[in-house]
Amino acid sequence: MIKNDFPKILESYFNRHLKLERQFSENTYTTYLSVLSQYIDYLKNTKGLSPDQISIEHFEKTTTLDFLNYAESTLNCSTRTRNHKLTVINSFLEYAQSLNPVYIRVYLENKSIKMKRVVKEKQDFMAIEELEAFFRSINIKTKDGYKHYVLFTVLYETGARVSELINLRVSNLYFTGEAPHIRILG
To answer: 106-152 pLDDT, tens per residue?
Structure first.
């Protein structure tokens, strides 16, 4: 009987691969952890497996498809979220097969699962006049007003997400040299 190396690979995936090699942000790391935890919980609840029984072989294509359907129907996940869960699972399986080639079949089977088509919502943008009116409405003579003006300007000029702006540190600001810039991690 082959020893179950799933726990070891899972731990290495999070502690070595995502944190050290890929240097994922804390939010991305937490999201990946949440997806794989949901999958493991799904295996425990639907297959009656205890955590020590779960192996990479339980990530077979049919089980993954069942999990994705469960995520959409029971967890009420959007198609976009469903597709993201598939991306996380495939990322984990790609890592697993890189450590132990015996898992290449499971990885390739899952890789063949197609992403569902996402209906793109119409993006509404502010007209230049609306944007100018928005910035004029901020009272920069107050401390909070000035702070908000700077925050909204950084968001607008960089295209950063709010979470990326919140995680911004002084060490990410570069005001010296010919090209001052901000380093955004996300």
So the answer is: 999 999 999 999 888 777 888 889 989 999 999 999 999 999 999 99
Q: Are 67 and 39 in contact (CB under 8 A)?
A: yes
Q: How far apart are CA 53 and CA 2, in angstroms?
A: 12
Largest CA distance in the chain: 73
Question: Nearest-CA neighbor of 186 among 22, 11, 27?
Answer: 27
Tokens encoding 138:
């901020």
> What pTM value is reported for the model?
0.69
3-state secondary structure of 75: coil
Q: Is 38 helix (H, G, I), strand (E, B) or coil?
A: helix
CA dist list (Å): 62 to 44, 65, 75, 90, 177: 16, 5, 18, 14, 55
Side chain identity, residue 170: V
Determine which helix (DSSP H) or strand (DSSP E) holds 90, and give its type and residue range. Answer: helix 79-99
Cα angle for residues 76, 95, 65 (degrees, 5° grid)? 30
* Residue 3, φ and ψ in degrees, nearest 5: -65, 140
